[in-house]
Design a protein that fits this description.
The complex is a heterodimer of chains A (285) and B (259). Chain A has 285 residues and is mainly α. Chain A contains 12 helices and no strands. The longest helix of chain A is centred in the C-terminal third of the chain and has 40 residues, at 173-212. The N and C termini of chain A lie far apart (48 Å). The model of chain A is unreliable at 281-285 (pLDDT under 50). Chain B has a single domain (6-258), classed as Rossmann fold, CATH 3.40.50.300. Chain B has a 6-stranded mixed β-sheet, with helices on both faces. The longest helix of chain B is centred in the C-terminal third of the chain and has 16 residues, at 179-194. Residues 1-9 and 248-259 of chain B have low confidence and may be disordered. Classes of the chains: A mainly alpha (285), B alpha/beta (259). The interface between A and B is large, with 34 and 39 residues. Chain A: Its main location: membrane. Chain A: This is Metal ABC transporter permease. Chain A: It comes from Vasconcelosia minhoensis LEGE 07310.
């Protein structure tokens, strides 16, 4: 029985893929939780797609892909903020427009610059070709993000719960928000390496949303989400090995399966399992 | 107007709102207005829905772009934000946010300890005292989404108390609360007043409760009246603020109007 789990470990690329999966699957939901509680999950999707032009240009100019993708993603966020500030246009329209335009720009650059980048890999991930150097970079990035979340947990809780209240109390909300968006962008760059720009949002949002159905506090949501994300990644890698599935989509589907299980069977909020009588004095809308 | 005498102000004005106006995308939301507040004053801000009450509170706090000046003890308020406790409208908050009563009240201690520092023993002691004051100690580990409307309002009152501010700005704190919460809030207001704190409470309801205030500000895009309750709550003022087509409930009563 155990050999089902150990056999694939004979291959180095599988070992690397599992390591990367544990790492990225564990980190993405922690930052992703901030998107979920602010109802900004689609912003994550927009930023993920906005990474593409930067990735292509970075490859073309021979600079670090993280740098290119980061600048590109932040420009996307900036464009949305700018459109909203300058007009009556609502955030969903600004996001849709930015999403499509950056993605289109990325594809145009990819086809005209002749960079020999693999479009499939960019869109859906290419975890089986992960190198030791990429893992090292990912570890540094992940540890940095975790330290920052640890340091800024309370201010970010305040900001994402009651932004006006936080600003009224003198918190530097603009800086904190910009920092949070930078963290979201970096996390998406991590996620993209595993499941691609199109599916990165699944790792950011899926496990965190699943955890939201199970617990009542943000830090618990992050911890449970992190475990679920790591588990989904590992299961996805094994499924893709044995069933010959594309790894990124396999991981995304495992994420959704876990969500579905929580939606149906969560002890507190599951469709089949939630207590029949609500708690005293509920104020559900 | 004109019923206030010099003796009514025992203290120099602590909060000075000078010529403050708000434009929102080319539309004037608030005409220029000036108001002074003394220490130990409980001031009601009334007016119909959409009169700009929340906008005025946000302008005082510097949360919306406004022209004019807001001074606290002679210095710009925006540099002393820790002195002000703000209680937002309950509808402004996502009550499905995954957090507990305790964590929200603890946010009130952010200003005094410095926003980047974790809450220490003193902050926790203060948050606990605030919880006791609003009678939520037993519910401190409950998710905020599982509270009643009155309990939710008390969480925010508790957060404001934990801040130990000198100026309290409360946006519609009486909306949708139970009797117990209402009585508790009024008691807390009296206690804060006695400590020399200044309170500005906004409300769109018009009723007996308004007699509890030292002073009322009647607002509808502009400041229509600034006086003691009996001076503000006149038929003429009501018509000016709310229009002519108000429903008369009890023609002979002192306060016959609903909005």
């Amino acid at each position: 029985m155990l050999h089902v789990l150990t056999d694939p470990l004979a291959y180095e690329f599988i070992r690397y893929a599992l390591l990367m999966g544990l790492l990225i699957g564990g980190v993405c939901p922690i930052i992703g939780s901030y998107l979920v509680v602010q109802r900004l999950t689609l912003l994550g999707d927009v930023i993920a797609h906005a990474l593409l032009p930067g990735l292509v240009l970075a490859h073309f100019w021979g600079i670090a892909f993280i740098l290119g993708a980061f600048i590109s993603g932040m420009l996307g966020t900036g464009l949305i903020t700018w459109i909203r500030a300058q007009s009556r246009i609502k955030i969903d329209a600004a996001m849709a427009l930015t999403f499509a335009s950056f993605f289109a720009l990325g594809i145009v650059l990819l086809s005209t610059l002749n960079t020999q980048l693999d479009l499939d890999g960019l869109l859906f991930g290419d975890i089986l070709s992960v190198t030791a150097e990429e893992i090292r970079q990912a570890v540094i990035l992940a540890v940095g993000l975790l330290v920052l979340v640890g340091l800024f947990y309370r201010p970010l809780l305040f900001l994402t719960f009651d932004r006006l209240g936080a600003e009224a109390m003198g918190l530097p909300v603009s800086w904190l928000n910009a920092g949070l968006m930078a963290a979201v962008t970096l996390t998406l760059i991590l996620g993209m390496q595993m499941v691609g720009v199109i599916l990165a949002i699944a790792l950011m949002v899926g496990p965190a949303t699943t955890a939201y159905l199970l617990v009542k506090e943000l830090h618990q949501m992050m911890l449970i989400g992190s475990g679920l994300g790591a588990a989904a990644s590992v299961i996805g890698v094994y499924l893709s090995y044995y069933l010959d599935l594309p790894t990124g989509p396999a991981i995304a589907l495992v994420v959704f399966t876990l969500f579905l299980l929580a939606l149906l069977f969560s002890p507190s909020q599951g469709i089949f399992t939630q207590p029949k009588l609500a708690q005293p004095g509920p104020n559900r809308r | 107007m004109g019923t206030l005498t010099e003796n009514d102000y025992h203290f120099p004005p602590m909060l000075e709102v000078q010529n403050v106006s708000v434009n929102y995308r080319g539309v004037r939301a608030l005409e220029p207005l000036s108001i002074d507040f003394a220490a130990g004053e409980l001031v009601g801000l009334i007016g119909p829905n959409g009169a700009g009450k929340s906008t005025l509170i946000k302008a005082i706090l510097g949360l919306v772009p406004a022209s004019g000046r807001v001074l606290w003890n002679g210095l710009p308020l925006r540099r002393q934000r820790q002195r002000v406790a703000y209680v937002p409208q309950r509808s402004q908050i996502d009550w499905d946010y995954p957090t507990t009563v305790w964590n929200v009240v603890l946010m009130g201690t952010t200003a005094l300890r410095g926003w980047w520092r974790p809450p220490g023993r003193e902050a926790q002691r203060r948050a606990y005292a605030a919880l006791e004051r609003v009678d939520l100690v037993g519910l401190r580990d409950r998710a905020i989404g599982a509270l009643s409307g009155g309990q939710q309002q008390r969480v925010f009152l508790g957060r404001a108390l934990a801040q130990q501010a000198d100026l309290f700005l409360l946006d519609e704190p009486f909306t949708g609360v139970d009797r117990k919460t209402e009585a508790m809030m009024l008691a807390v207001f009296s206690a804060l007043k006695a400590q020399g704190k200044t309170l500005l409470v906004c409300s769109h309801e018009w009723g007996d409760r308004l007699q509890q205030y030292d002073r009322l500000l009647l607002l509808n895009q502009q400041l229509l009246a600034d006086d003691r309750p009996e001076g503000v709550m006149t038929l003429e003022n009501i018509h000016r603020a709310y229009g002519q087509n108000l429903q008369l409930v009890k023609p002979s009563a002192d306060l016959p109007f609903v909005c």
